[in-house]
Amino acid sequence: MLLFRSRMREVKVATAPVGGSGRRQRGVVVFLILLSLILLFHRLGSLSLFDADEPAFAEATREMLLSGNWITPHFNFEPRFDKPILFYWLIGLAYIGFGVGEFAARFWSAVFAIGLVLSIYLFGRQALGSRGALIAALAFTTSIGTAILARVAVTDMTLAFSHTGLLQWPDSDYRQSRIGAPLKGGAGYFPLGQAGRICPIL
User: Fold this and answer.
1) How many CA within 13 A on the CB side of residue 190?
2) Signed CA dihedral, 80, 85, 91, 94: sign only
3) C-beta separation of 83 from 9 below 8 A
4) Full-prediction pTM beyond 0.90?
5) Cβ(8)–Cβ(129) below 8 Å
6) pLDDT digits (tens, 9 = 90+) for 7-19
7) What are the residue boundaries of the structural domains of the chain, listed by start?
8) H or E element that contains 73
9) Helical H segments across the chain, by residue range
10) pLDDT tens-digit readout, 138-172
11) CA-CA-CA-CA torsion sign (51, 57, 58, 60)
């Protein structure tokens, strides 16, 4: 681990922006955002909800809006304690903004997937250099697993994004690591419960 961190610092120094490099990096970030928007948001709400989890999250959140109870989720008007509250709140905010439907139910999965793409690139620049980071981000963006999990109303992308903060912690500056990484890591508990608490420990 110490050797890995040392290697990361060496790569960071070697790839520090010089001259037009900063503009090039911003261009890469814009490119990744645009590519992710096309792949993850195109016809996001065109398919009906499927599997067991999507309808459960979507309907429980709809009932949350109907009842005005934002504390205890209900599914078929029976209490549902399958997952903690954060993901229901996020879908509820999307319902308020976009209306109740498939697009709103899946909105935050796609948003957190884009955040994860950028996290992979930014963290990867420290560990792999700019080219390696771009390859890693593109591999994640275009993978079948991302195409599936980022386009369904499940908590996987929310959890994965929150835990990328733990990967960035060792080489972040003091203020960012003291505040940002614990917040993102701790946020993993709220969408996925005990798994979100245990994964950072591992």
Assistant:
1) 15
2) positive
3) no
4) no
5) no
6) 455 444 444 444 5
7) 49-201
8) none
9) 2-14, 21-41, 53-67, 86-98, 102-141, 144-149, 156-168, 174-187, 189-192, 194-201
10) 999 999 999 999 999 999 898 888 777 666 655 55
11) positive
